[in-house]
Amino acid sequence: MTDMGWDIKADVVVVGGGGAGLCAGLAAAKAGAKTIVLEKTGTPGGKTAISIGIMTASGTSVQKAAGIRDSHARHLADVKAMAKQTGTKIDEDTTKFMMRVCSAEIENLIDLGVKFTGPHPEGPHQTPRMHVVQPDCRRLVKILVAAAKKYGAGIECNTPGAELILDHHGKVAGVRTDGKKGPRCIKAGAVVLAAGDYSANLDMVTSLAPKLKLAPPLRDFATGDGHRMAMRIGAQTQNMERINEPHMRFTDWPNVEPSPGLIRAGAKLVTGKGIAIKTRLTDTVLLPGFEKRWEDIYIVIDAKCAGKLATKADDIGPGRDGWRRTGKPFIGTAPKVGYAYLEDCKGWSWHFEAKTIAAAARHLKCKPAALSKSLGKAAEGPFHILGPVQRVIANSGGGLATDQKTRVVAKDGAPIDGLFGAGVNARLLSYMGGHGYALAWAMASGRIAGTGAAAHAKRAR
């Protein structure tokens, strides 16, 4: 596409105002670039704003303060062991790079005023490495927005990126937007794509993964705008067919994924009519038995089941470690605490405690006899009703191929002049094992991309 005439001019334009985009905008503005961040929804935050807030990192000040001795070498050894166990090959140099920048990003965020709890134990890692944003990621977004504005970055909401504009040399020269102010062309010395995944783009999902059992997306704004814009100008992609299987999430914030251990402990799954649902367990999700279900589902925990779950009294620390030490189930990974126990759920809208089956049935608006039959004769109150939960597609795993400077590369492997990626629009890593890398990479890659874009724009002046 050739020069169409410009409505606005900037040094750096960031497409996407989630965590990655805000970090990119902050870094670019801090480097002295005139920066505009374009956000398609009415408020900044994107996926980050509803994230659990987990960042897995090694050798951090949070670990040191808790008396945890750790290093990137130990971290790498754990990741290599996990990869070997799953039969996955890893790029060791890239993995080391990710560990360095993600750990450094924890310190950058602390300097901005972000607070973390932990480190918490996390899955197969031998050392506690889970850092959890406090009190949740909505606070993180507020801090990033304030910092970006402090350094002069403009944030325009309701303004989705529509198309990358190339000059006659094939260099990325700007962005066309179709927002509340109508179609506009913004000239840019460099562009950062940080527009999130494509889990809500039905056409893209079905074409890439035709055998996937569909479900509603967790985030309806995740339509792969950055992928689409870059692919149109010849960008290389990676792992685009990797789309998460539908799994269960609570429909209200925080959108926690229930732990399969709840069923093992005796929790019952029922429909809104109080009818029991039979399911098989998998290692990570409550999926089997739900493939064709689209209705709301509830998890009912009676007194006997509750007695088998981990509680705060099981924790010794550092971090929330009782579930791991005792082998008792937790409710799910969650904001603030990392691992939510039943007592943590009492402040959330999807928890209701009923003393009797009749009271539980009134909450579900079902017949007491139906619920009583589903729970069984031995069920005793109090009853904790968690839900509703629904099958959703939470993420898509593919992204734009980038180098370690987060420059988006073309199909021939060469960087596309003037184009950077962040978050899932910078697909650098294929495997790390465990939770907590996506958010850490979103923040770290945003900072790298924004800094690089500002330097590129300065050279291009």
Strand content: 15-25%
Count of DSSP-assigned helices: 13
- Calculate the mean pLDDT score and round it: 92
Mind telling me which CATH architecture of the largest domain this is?
3-Layer(bba) Sandwich
User: In the residues, how many domains can be counted?
Assistant: 2
By CATH reckoning, the class of the largest domain would read Alpha Beta
How much helical structure, as a percent, in the residues? 25-40%
Q: How many individual β-strands?
A: 20
User: What is the CA-based Rg, rounded?
Assistant: 23 Å
CATH topology of the largest domain: FAD/NAD(P)-binding domain
Which segments are poorly predicted (pLDDT under 50) over 5 or more consecutive residues?
Answer: none
Short description:
The protein has helices at 19-30, 61-65, 72-86, 92-112, 137-150, 202-208, 225-231, 261-264, 303-306, 322-326, 357-364, 368-375, 437-460; strands spanning 8-15, 35-38, 54-56, 115-120, 130-134, 154-156, 161-166, 172-179, 182-193, 237-238, 247-250, 268-271, 297-301, 332-334, 338-340, 351-354, 383-392, 399-400, 407-409, 415-421. By secondary structure, the chain is of the alpha+beta class.
What does this structure look like?
The protein is α+β, with helices and mostly antiparallel strands. It has 2 domains: about 10-245 and about 395-460, 3-Layer(bba) Sandwich (FAD/NAD(P)-binding domain); about 245-390, Succinate dehydrogenase/fumarate reductase flavoprotein, catalytic domain (Flavocytochrome C3, Chain A, domain 1). The protein is about 30% helix and about 20% strand. It is built from 13 helices and 20 strands. The protein has helices at about 20-30, 60-65, 70-85, 90-110, 135-150, 200-210, 225-230, 260-265, 305, 320-325, 355-365, 370-375, 435-460; strands spanning about 10-15, 35-40, 55, 115-120, 130-135, 155, 160-165, 170-180, 180-195, 235-240, 245-250, 270, 295-300, 330-335, 340, 350-355, 385-390, 400, 405-410, 415-420. Strands 1, 2, 6, 7, 8, 9, 19 and 20 form an 8-stranded mixed sheet that branches. Strands 11, 12, 13, 16 and 17 form a 5-stranded antiparallel sheet that branches. Strands 3-5-4 form a 3-stranded antiparallel sheet. Helix 1 (about 20-30) packs parallel to helix 5 and helix 1 packs parallel to helix 13 (about 435-460). The radius of gyration is 23 Å and the shape is globular. It starts with 7 loop residues before the first strand and ends with a helix. The mean pLDDT is about 90.
